[in-house]
Amino acid sequence: TQLLEQSPQFLSIQEGENLTVYCNSSSVFSSLQWYRQEPGEGPVLLVTVVTGGEVKKLKRLTFQFGDARKDSSLHITAAQPGDTGLYLCAGATSGSRLTFGEGTQLTVNP
Amino acid sequence: DAGITQSPRHKVTETGTPVTLRCHQTENHRYMYWYRQDPGHGLRLIHYSYGVKDTDKGEVSDGYSVSRSKTEDFLLTLESATSSQTSVYFCAIGEYSGANVLTFGAGSRLTVL
């Protein structure tokens, strides 16, 4: 069983601050996805990273896939209250299902 | 956004009773999944399907069964519900295996008393 560990589990910050969420594993993944989930809804895909060392930007969100494809990070610049939610990483090995991390609950206070 | 719907959205039942959750998709995706989400555990895969009548177990399949008689419907059954099965259940669909991008339903909250 591949395990994905996310840190921190909980993060409460003020509007305008920067933050980084980490997703780590001892396993190698062929790709890694980040989802955001809001209360009462299902997770929604933010990004997929495939190549080791890959960096993708989505407005104020920057996603990075580790060189060895075992870890990933999500950096948010100038966080806004609308960024509040549960952030989940999920890793895929070739031909198998996704393994999800436990999630990071982010609260951005106005 | 609809393309995947779950029913019921909320259910309260008693220990020992059977429960069936339904997932319906209009996207014609081949792959369908059932996950449960619990605090401290994230999303854990219960069962998945890779085609009509083709299903396989996930990491937490004990106490659950599934059926897929049509492309669009994937049923999750708890034959005899237990309190440990109190959870939020999510159905997801995907076009491909492996690095599959999943689209999730809104979830079904089940409480077993």
Order of helices and strands of chain A: EEEEEEEEEEE
Any idea what the shape of chain B is?
Answer: globular
- How is the main sheet of chain A built? 6 strands, mixed
Uncertain segments of chain B? none
- Which sheet architecture does the biggest sheet of chain B show? 7 strands, mixed
Structural class, judged by helices and strands of chain A? mainly beta
Mean pLDDT over all positions of chain A? 93
Tell me the number of strands of chain B: 11
Oligomer: heterodimer
Strand content of chain A: over 45%
Helical percentage of chain B: under 10%
Query: What level of helicity do the residues of chain A show?
Result: under 10%
Return residue spans of chain A where pLDDT drops below 50 for at least 5 consecutive residues.
none
Label the overall shape of chain A.
globular
What would a concise description of this structure say?
The complex is a heterodimer of chains A (110) and B (113). Chain A is mostly beta strands.
How would you describe this protein?
- The complex is a heterodimer of chains A (110) and B (113).
- With 110 residues, chain A is mainly beta.
- Chain A is built from no helices and 11 strands.
- In chain A, strands 2, 4, 5, 9, 10 and 11 form a 6-stranded mixed β-sheet that branches.
- Chain A starts with a strand and ends with a strand.
- Chain B has strands at residues 4-7, 10-13, 19-25, 31-38, 42-51, 54-57, 64-70, 73-78, 87-94, 103-104, 108-112.
- Chain B is globular.
- The A-B interface holds A 1, 30-31, 33, 40-45, 48, 50, 88, 90, 92-98, 100-103 and B 33, 35, 40-45, 48, 58-59, 90, 92, 97-107.
